[in-house]
Amino acid sequence: MNHYSNSISIFLLITLLASACGTDQTRSITAVSWGGSYGKAVNEGVNIPFMDSTGIMVEVEDYNGGLAQIRGQVEIGNIHWDIVDLEIADAVRACDEGLLEPIDIHSLPDGPDGTPASEDFPDEVQTECGVGSLYYSTIYAYNEEYIANNFESEPTTMADFFDLETFPGRRGMRRVPQVNIEFALIAEGVPLDAVYDTMSTSEGLDLAFEKLNSIKDQIVWWEAGAQPPQMLADGEVIMSTAYNGRIFNAQVLEEQPFVIVWDGQLLDTGQIGIVKGTPRLEDALRYLQFATSAESLARISARISYSPVRKSGMSLVTTHIVAGVEMAPHLPASPANIANALPYDWEWWANHQDEMNERFSAWLAL
Amino acid sequence: MRMSIGRVIYLLICTLIFVFLMAPIIVIIPLSFNAEPYFTFTEGMLRLDPEAWSLRWYREIMTNDVWIKSLVNSIVIGVSATILATALGTLAALGLANSAIPARRTIMGLIISPMVTPVIIAAAGMFFFYSDLGLGQTHVSIILAHTVLGVPFVVVTVTATLAAYDFTLNRAAANLGAGPWTTFRRVQFPLIAPGVFSGALFAFAISFDEVVVILFMGGVEQRTVPRQMWAGIREQISPAILAVATLLIVFAILLLLTVGWLQRRGESSQ
Amino acid sequence: MAGPLRLPGNPDVRVRLRALSLVAPLVIFVGVTFVAPLGTMLMRSVYDPVVADALPKTLALLSDWDANELPSEAIFATLAEEIKHASSERTIGRVAGRINRVQGGFRGLVTRTERELRTTGQGTWREIMISVDSLWADAATWHAIKVTGERYTARHYWNALDMQILSDGSIARQPEERRIYLRLFLRTLMVSGLITLLCLLLGYPVAHFIADSPPRQGNLLLILVLIPFWTSLLVRTTSWIVLLQNQGVLNDLFVALGLIGEDGRLSMIYNMTGTIIAMTHVLLPFMVLPLYSVMRGIPATHMNAAASLGATPLQAFLRVYWPQSLPGVGAGALLVFILAIGYYITPALVGGSDGQLISNMIAYHMQTSLNWGLAAALGGVLLVGVLILYMVYERLIGIDRIGLR
């Protein structure tokens, strides 16, 4: 033997490793979701039952919104995400850009009461490529312990979130333009039904950025939905915008003294889509059909306070599976919570997301 | 013995710098035994209340599939990259130790360049390169990437060992009728083995701590321990990462002691 | 030994070839797995065929378009045709994304137009498209299509240097609010310089102290430098977060000692301060180790001799010790500086928004904005800078002596 055979053996080793890692016996798909307590709810409510009933493995990857990763995979031609749980505005944009497979709503299963899918999903959540999943909302929340100890009153309105004089301290906000712009305008006193009209004017946007600017140096930016409850618990911030379900789960599962301020909440819906060009289309479709059934959505609703978009799914929502709490009063659409709510205008955002992202990141960098 | 004021200040400064070096590493260890999901000392911990201390985060990582999987990935990738890097690096160091080799500085410059090139640039290039080859999101591409990042450390370490090696031993062996392979195996390798092993440990440590390449090129199947920590730190999910960190510190100290021991052995054997 | 190469003649050539054949596998390996990827990246910085491939006819017509006028109906019609085609091929998103980088809002414009093209058929293409959005009447939109339609382009490099190509082909500085990269390069250089200086200030006394100690004690102290060196970067970064954050150990300690009030907690992390502290800690061993290896070689007798000749300690240090330690200073400083300007992980985790360096911008364009051409160009500029420093290092110190042990 000499050094030539050494390099040959190295080559053999590489091929060996390649074949060892390349052959995967079980079928699996990658389902991308939002991590934290919501990711856990999806895992327990959808992924595990799906694996049990089909034998197809579900690999989970976390994601925090946006289209960058999907665009990247389609661009480079290496699709490793199959299913993505998207914000509706992202789903519409992705569809227009050719990043998602179009889905025929008639291919989805009927509701448990026999309602066909095309009627079971409300019209406003039916899009070309995405399938509606859950209603959720962005609210802001605070740690009652801290607020009660340090201030005389408690925040109750959106304006209070931007009020540094009454409530000095750091605030958490999601590091994206959407929602924050709306909140800024609501706090500025723009009536709810005029928010999106205001945003369509350049003065309106200037006004929103000015408002955000007034608290900019007190903002701690978060990206993952799991961060706000952690930041509130650690005392990194005195209040934070958050997804209502994350705060609810921290309240009931970790007994955190968090309070949700529903005033000015932004109601939104999630969509599930399949990445265009995935080599595992058939399995992905099966997953999609399973995940958007009324039963699956209700199983998520038993674990986090988001409600099924399927009309037939609402009747299946009862109590939290661990805490036993009645879910209805904690859902965004409950009568007490929805009094001053703004429905998210995803069409506005589908049309303006790119421009707003640019303006927002330029503003952040200043 | 009396010390001048200058000497006292100097000692004080040096002590502070040692504290700066070590404190961050030491402080994380007790915090990993925190019973509460916080990243700071609770009052209970300071009172040494046994209730406030717990192994819950260790239990959590030991029973968490994701951490176990990422550990397996880290080991598979690390060991493969180490074997490749050590083989290629040792051979090259042997060649470079020969004074007859042409363009030695250029070759050395090329081989060492992955060590100083910003990893972000290398990772970006590799992302395009392996994706074009259809090897995106595979163990193979990551192993190759880690190999090339670790190989300079093997070359440098083995070269340093060979600098102390007496090449007349090779000639002596040849005169006694041994072929080059026999000479290498029976004479040279045993003497430079400590250097080769510390080079291998370096290469393993590089791979075991690497996260940029994984971030750019790894999919969910290539999750490693550092990748998992990265996610944990970015999103502050749980103090479980402090438990992982503590284990990694212990691991680093073991590596360090092994390398030190190998080096002392290497020096005494030559 | 199986089948040795029979080389005729000069044994010198044989020895050389044998040495080369030992080195060859690694050289080839580095060439394929390292140099080739860097080449791929540099290629991406100057070559982009996406728009050229999708809109060939429009671009051909645009080549003799007078930038002062609205394009002819033929150009509008061709573009409409090609947009429809690209849309059916599902490549329109990629094309629009490219152009969007030169002309913000283009992606939305194409989406809206494409939706409209599916249904209407009234009037000329020019009228239809301008009725969708008046941006189609804006010469800048067409210029953007033309610019991104070049297969080979230097525009990413111009962009990386805060310059742009105007519609008449001349080069001008970017508008004030878009000049960010030069500032970021400069910030990276200054921060790296500061970190190098801090590492030198902290590393020099420590290295001297270790080199000056009796061997047993020195080895023990050296371990205190080596433990951080061997500890995972992510672990050390985590530690600094734990120490420095608002509710972190240091702030808690300061509050407990009464140095600051509960509301006066210091912001030491998720900003530039955090980046500098954590990076100094991470890079300090790279300064101490080369310094130590040089200082160990400076005989203590030199200082004693200087003292006995009547030099004060300061004089002796400045005239005798410092000059002899300079090779270590140079090696450590260059190494730390080279590593610092390309650092990514630590600023990304503890830098917040103002503690970001050029590497983080490269990562941003790689992963978020997907402006890979620009990311590659920024990487190219950084790479050239590092290579120059690397060559300086090689000339002055020699890479064999890169400090590790």
Characterization of this structure:
The complex is a heterotrimer of chains A (366), B (270) and C (405). Chain A contains 16 helices and 10 strands. With 366 residues, chain A is an alpha/beta fold. Chain A has 2 domains: 25-135 and 269-332, D-Maltodextrin-Binding Protein, domain 2; 138-267 and 339-365, Periplasmic binding protein-like II (D-Maltodextrin-Binding Protein, domain 2, 3-Layer(aba) Sandwich). Chain A starts with a helix and ends with a helix. Chain B has one domain: Orthogonal Bundle (MetI-like fold), CATH 1.10.3720.10. In chain C, strand 1 and strand 2 form a beta hairpin. Chain C has helices spanning 11-46, 50-54, 56-62, 73-88, 92-102, 106-119, 125-132, 139-148, 155-160, 181-212, 215-230, 233-244, 249-256, 272-295, 300-308, 313-341, 345-350, 358-367, 372-396; strands at 163-165, 171-173. Chain C contains 19 helices and 2 strands. In chain C, helix 5 packs across helix 6 (106-119), helix 10 (181-212) packs antiparallel against helix 11 and helix 12 packs across helix 14. The relative contact order of chain C is 0.09. Chains B and C meet through helix 1, helix 4, helix 5, helix 6 and helix 7 of B and helix 1, helix 10, helix 11, helix 12 and helix 14 of C.
What's the topology here?
The complex is a heterotrimer of chains A (366), B (270) and C (405).
Chain A: H1 3-22, E1 28-33, H2 36-54, E2 57-62, H3 68-76, E3 83-87, H4 88-96, H5 117-120, E4 131-143, H6 144-150, H7 158-161, E5 171-174, H8 180-187, H9 195-199, H10 202-215, E6 219-222, H11 227-234, E7 239-243, H12 244-254, E8 258-274, H13 281-291, H14 294-301, E9 307-308, H15 311-314, E10 342-343, H16 346-365
Parallel strand pairs in A: 1-2, 1-3, 5-6, 5-7, 8-10
Antiparallel strand pairs in A: 3-8, 4-7, 4-8, 4-9
Chain B: H1 5-31, H2 43-46, H3 56-63, H4 65-96, H5 104-116, H6 119-132, H7 139-163, H8 168-175, H9 180-209, H10 212-217, H11 225-235, H12 240-269
Helix pairs in contact in B: 1-12, 3-12, 4-7, 4-9, 4-11, 5-7, 7-9, 8-9, 9-12
Chain C: H1 11-46, H2 50-54, H3 56-62, H4 73-88, H5 92-102, H6 106-119, H7 125-132, H8 139-148, H9 155-160, E1 163-165, E2 171-173, H10 181-212, H11 215-230, H12 233-244, H13 249-256, H14 272-295, H15 300-308, H16 313-341, H17 345-350, H18 358-367, H19 372-396
Antiparallel strand pairs in C: 1-2
